Every structure is written in C-alpha cells, then in structure tokens.
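Good day; I would like, with your permission, to put a structural problem before you. What I wish to show you is a protein chain and, alongside it, a tokenised description of its three-dimensional fold. Here, with my thanks, is the record as I have it:
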Amino acid sequence: MAKESIGLVTDEASEISDEWAKENQVEIVKAEVNWPYFNIEEIPGENIFDKMREADKQGKKVVVKTALSNLAGFKKAFETQLEKYDKVLYIAVSHKFSGAINGAFQMRNLLKEKERIFIFDSFSGTSGEGLFVLRAKELIDQGMEINDILNELNKLKPKVKVIAFFQDPKWVVASGRVSKTAGEWIRRIKKWGFQPIIRIRDGQATSGGIVKAQDEISAILKIMERFKKRSQKKLRAFISHGDIENQAQKLKKELEELEIEVPMVTMTSLVVAGHTGPGTMICGWHELD
C-alpha cells in the first residue's frame, strides 16, 4: 500500500467511538481490564454498564481495575499505522491520569521506525482528549505537516474544558476515589438541588464546586450557557455518558439549540465510567477560532 501522510493513534480514554475510528482509520489502544471480585462474563446485561448494575443488585463488590499502559496494544497500533502512513501521531490521555504515555514511549523506543512516531500528551482525558483527536484529524485532512499540527494542538491545550457529573456517588465510593463520608455529603447536596462538579484542570480531575440544578443535564447546560455568553465565540462540544443515551441525545439537542457544535456523542469507556459508574455524564468543549 502506498504511504500516506499521518496516521492517528489514541487510547480508549479519549472516548472516540469505534465506528468513527474505523471510518477514519484511527487506531484505538484498548485498556487492560480486570474485575477482581467476580467474572463479568457471568453477569447478564446488554452492555458493561448493565452488567455493573446487575452485579450491584446481586450484592457483589463492583470494582474494576483498568490499565492503559498496554505495550502489546501500542505495538499493534503503531505497526498497523506505520504500514500505511509516513508518520504516526499518538494522542495520549494526561500522564497525570495514566501511565499510558510511558507505555507508548517504551514501545516507540523498541521499534526501528521510532523516528516516525510522534507522541502528544493531551493533558486531558475523556471527551477533552477526544476533542484533540477530532482536531488532529481535521488538521491532517487539511494537509498540515506534523510539527505544525503539534503546534496547533499545544495552542489548544488551555482552551479545552471538561466537566463531569455522576448520578450516584456509590460507584465512586466503591472505587476508592472518595470516602464514604464524602459520598454521603454528595447525596445530601444532590437532594438539596445542587450538583457537584468534577473538572479536569492541569491534566488531572479536581473538584469544581457545585452548581444549582435539578439534574446533570441542567447543570451542564447552565455552565455552557454562562461560558458561551462570556466567550461570544463558536464552541465545539463532545459528550460522553455512562449508558444514558437518551439523556445524552437530549443534551446534544439542547447544546445545538445554543448553536454549539456537537460532532460526537459516545458511551464512555470503563477507564472513566468504571470508577464513576453508570449514569455518568461528561462534556468537553473548546472555542473555535
């Protein structure tokens, strides 16, 4: 096959759909997943989040362990793209979330064609990382050279915002990400009509305060409306969710009514929602120049 310009690789944390990846010849490195307390294959359900709900009903300890530093996965992805493209660009989840980027560097250094592989730390994750993948594909399609693409992606870093909400704190408590006391506090303020915000700042997830809203969709809309009013620029958003497709599509429609571009709505990966649980709603966005 004739060499083409630049091939893309990303990891599962970017939430890029398998369908879009296949259509655009993007390789996705999947996470290594382990359920330490039961065999997930024995749990009934249409998808992984159905299985999590069912396991919880059965009284099982629903904890998942994931790892993106999948050397075999990087080897396959890099070699696949090197066969088709002159250069390969891997867009990685923030190094503060995962050791994935270290795994990518290790594998690159083991390959003879390492000088043809470029690695970019998005300093983001989930739908924020996905926005970098979408932008990189645009720039590649425009015929931009690799160093210019990397410069453009670096300029995008401070513009990408990510907010996340979860329906029930029991999942994040079970994962060990927050204490039982904090979980009870979260339940209490949600009953009072407030939604706790998780933001990605400086490459890591942090508490973003609270917003008065009846549910997660209303909270995202309120934040996005405020941002758009201050910005006065066109926005692009990326929605990912923990198996609440109808609510996600409703949010997409509401955002589009605000004239915000929403090119992708996907079910979030276990890398994220495995810890925050079914019902997670995440929105990443950035201003368009």
About this structure: Residues 63 and 174 are 6 Å apart (CA to CA).
